[in-house]
Amino acid sequence: MGSDKALALFRGGPLIQAALQTIDAVGIPARIAGSRNDLSSFAAQIPDTFTETGPLGGVHAALSVSDAEWNLFLPVDLPLMPSSLLACLLRRATLTGAPVTAVRLNGRIEPFPVILHCSVLLSITQRLEAGNSACHAAWQDIPLELGSSLDAAPVEYLHQCGHCSHPRGLPPALWFQSANTPAELSRLNRLGA
Q1: How far is it, in rounded angstroms, from Cα 14 to Cα 40?
Q2: What is the enclosing helix (H) or strand (E) of 72?
């Protein structure tokens, strides 16, 4: 991105603000996980215990200090993600009891957003200690390690059944478009307008 992605502008405000507003719309308190520049003016920050381990290091840090049974993780670079999908995933997690609740898009498991049960912390710690920081593999393997299964409903089905929708009518495939380059962010700004 060329600068701190969290502070890149989406619809006139920083991406971090858009992510926090999406989580706030679900009605849960948000914190910023991971070792980053000071973003404490937006929300409380949780520094990584395992540095240089990408998103899984931030997930570990957040789970290490969380008192919640279910924990929602949304990266800063998905500004078109509707809060209705996050709320749907939280409901599913509490109903199914699955340690990992995610979604499939076009048959592929998306790494984020994800709902994690507090019981996955030990498995994530062991993965990071072994030098494995891939979220995608973790979400598929950890439920098996815990004698459970991954809950990953097709987002297209959830949308068609009315469980979630985008306030601007965008289709689910666009909800998962990430802002990793200035060109991608420019495109997302046009879609979000």
Answers
A1: 13
A2: strand 70-73
pLDDT tens digits, one per residue of 138-172? 999 999 988 899 999 999 999 999 999 999 899 99
- List of domains in the chain: 5-192 (3.90.550.10)
Angle at 37 between CA 34 and CA 38, to 5 degrees: 95
Nearest to 140 by CA among 118, 172, 114: 114
- Which single residue is written with the structure tokens 């989580």? 23
103: region left, alpha or beta (phi > 0 left; psi from -120 to 50 alpha): beta
The rounded distance, in Å, linking the Cα atoms of 193 and 185 is 12
Cis check for the bond before 154: say yes or no (omega within 30 of 0).
no
CB neighbour list of residue 44: distance below 8 Å, 6 or more residues apart? 31, 32
CA dist 48 and 76 (Å) reads 16
Whether the CB-CB separation of 155 and 85 falls below 8 Å is answered with: yes
Phi, psi for residue 172 in degrees, rounded to 5:
-55, -35
DSSP-assigned letter for residue 74:
-
**pLDDT tens, position by position, 58-110:** 999 999 999 999 999 999 999 999 999 999 999 999 999 999 999 999 999 99
